[in-house]
Amino acid sequence: MKEEFSKRISDFSKTLKQNGIDVALIMQNTDLYYFSGTVPSGALAISDSNDVVYAIRRGFLRAEKETAIPTDSLFQIKGLSQLPKLLHDRGIKINRVGVEMDVVPADMFLKLKDIFKDSEIVDISFHIRWQRAKKSPYEIEKMQEAARMLDCTMEDAKELIRAGKREIEVSAELEFRARKRGHQGRSRMRGFNGEVFMGHVHSGYRSAYPSGFLKPTAGIGPHPSYPEGASFEKIEENSPVIVDFLANYQGYLSDETRLFVVGSLPKELEKAYYFCKDMLTWLEEVVKPGMAAEDVYNQCLSMAKKAGYEDNFMGIKGNQTPFVGHGIGLELDEFPFIAKGQKYALEENMTFAFEPKVAFDGVGAVGIENVYLLTKEGAKPFNRYPRDIIYL
Amino acid sequence: MKEEFSKRISDFSKTLKQNGIDVALIMQNTDLYYFSGTVPSGALAISDSNDVVYAIRRGFLRAEKETAIPTDSLFQIKGLSQLPKLLHDRGIKINRVGVEMDVVPADMFLKLKDIFKDSEIVDISFHIRWQRAKKSPYEIEKMQEAARMLDCTMEDAKELIRAGKREIEVSAELEFRARKRGHQGRSRMRGFNGEVFMGHVHSGYRSAYPSGFLKPTAGIGPHPSYPEGASFEKIEENSPVIVDFLANYQGYLSDETRLFVVGSLPKELEKAYYFCKDMLTWLEEVVKPGMAAEDVYNQCLSMAKKAGYEDNFMGIKGNQTPFVGHGIGLELDEFPFIAKGQKYALEENMTFAFEPKVAFDGVGAVGIENVYLLTKEGAKPFNRYPRDIIYL
């Protein structure tokens, strides 16, 4: 365990060195956990020479009990203004200081600029996210367990979905069983305004309802103040029911979608579903490390156009999302994004959710989703639940 | 409904005028919902002359269906760089532009500074939060319903808590029943790294375990990656069990804590509990609009010292939180904070949770919490569940 965390720090330290950054200040919960094994608030300073200082404002006693960072690197501080002296006394240079500028709020950033007034502040978000995109064997094991838990959720859904039941009743019971299985409850997203609960159960026209976020099929949700997931409406016969759920095992997420139907499905929707399912097979046969993320997306988009789903792929017309997958791990919105404009190449040990979906305005949506590990041989699914439509 | 939202906008417009701010750009989910009734991402511009422009990047179709903003104020944009022209064409000045600098990330802030390069950017966080602290009759009604739901959760806890049951089993079933009652699931916090699930069930020494966040009794949680709430450990006889839960009704929160015991409680803990309970009575008898928030806190602190709880009040020694209450509404961490250094006076129609707690290292914690509405006559509790220790 200690080796896992010290390798994360030393790898990142090398990245800092390569980029001429003296020290990184890690302040966001997920990143703090990733590098230290605990999340008490403060700043975890990682230097380009592999030294580390965890300056803790709140929760020192907790950090002491949990962290993988050596005790002589833990410091209680009253405020961030103590950081320059603390780093100086440790022999850490602060000419170029890295900050997670994608998550640190503007007012805190300005305060840091003031505290480090003779330093150049640079953004280290990409470097952190790029390292976190590639998973270690330790992380892959956690994600395997999350996927296994989530397969059980799909089996639960098979048992629970009935015509006449409210979407929220099914969702609540899936959540309940998942929690008893050890689901941590809260899952993290990184992007500004990014939010998610435990997953979505939605059906009929609600699955194709336009989302206010960057999500292809999000459902109506209980109320405009939380506009996604299950509504209070009832599941109907002969109409698609989407279960798009998360699992969270020790911080690591899995994300899986399956399609359920009470009765039978209109042929048009069935055809669209098998188009999505075939896209998973295509992914598994074709995608290898070295392919650009946007190339994968563009090929999916071409397939959708060719199949006549130009106005339905990844959402209804006017609400389509320009992606077909997203990296996943400690956060739901990690690199790589299998999306428009993502020019970087996919690398070995990246993990991502792949979720082709097709939506028909006023009717419903269909789709499937698994989380994948990219290996030398190709994309290997973590999730193992059978892929056909589940007729009830 | 439309009147509710247009009053929120016109009130805020007056604040902008008073502070010499030409236009506010509202971008955060909660604030977007508060002013528009929907959350599709983009920027809601409110001018000092009560004009409004909702520039939507994502989810225009959703916004159209849900928002209280007039249709001729809705615009589809591709990026924030279109904002200056859009505002100019509308006749809105942009010399001083307000931004939610407490939540907008640094990189987005720098982008906005670049887009509005001839404008002065100022922080409007406080103005928004101060307005939102005082609730309208519409909001008070929602908070009443949330409190009613939460009283049912306490009744559920009475039925569910048993010695030998795991904390997470009890928590999962409370969550399940709350969800079926219409709890929205996800609840919002505003502060950087602020996070919360549906509530906490913890017992014995775990209730006094040091928190890494600014929370007095948070529990160990399932894992260091999400270090609060229920653990997988079992509830024991003759040991305090804390149920500190949230309800969320149409975006509005309630927050309530009650103490349960299977068997009997050591006299020392029982005494500490009734000290906390008496503090609620004190609040209800003494606190009125016009009192400074920090004075309320300081008086509580004095009472705690006098009673011998100097090292136990609001957490164990070394992990004590310098507050005894927090504003609540659409977010869990609103104004007013009944806390150290909060010099402003409490005002009529403010709503806050008041949560005196006493913790004993290695033993357990006790405490009670209600949400209050401050009226001319004093603090009126929303939550009605009986206040004595619930012996099972």
UniProtKB/TrEMBL annotation, chains A, B:
<dbReference type="InterPro" id="IPR000587">
    <property type="entry name" value="Creatinase_N"/>
</dbReference>
<dbReference type="InterPro" id="IPR029149">
    <property type="entry name" value="Creatin/AminoP/Spt16_N"/>
</dbReference>
<feature type="domain" description="Peptidase M24">
    <location>
        <begin position="141"/>
        <end position="376"/>
    </location>
</feature>
<dbReference type="Pfam" id="PF00557">
    <property type="entry name" value="Peptidase_M24"/>
</dbReference>
<dbReference type="InterPro" id="IPR000994">
    <property type="entry name" value="Pept_M24"/>
</dbReference>
<dbReference type="InterPro" id="IPR050659">
    <property type="entry name" value="Peptidase_M24B"/>
</dbReference>
<feature type="domain" description="Creatinase N-terminal">
    <location>
        <begin position="8"/>
        <end position="133"/>
    </location>
</feature>
<dbReference type="InterPro" id="IPR036005">
    <property type="entry name" value="Creatinase/aminopeptidase-like"/>
</dbReference>
<protein>
    <submittedName>
        <fullName>Peptidase M24</fullName>
    </submittedName>
</protein>
<dbReference type="Pfam" id="PF01321">
    <property type="entry name" value="Creatinase_N"/>
</dbReference>
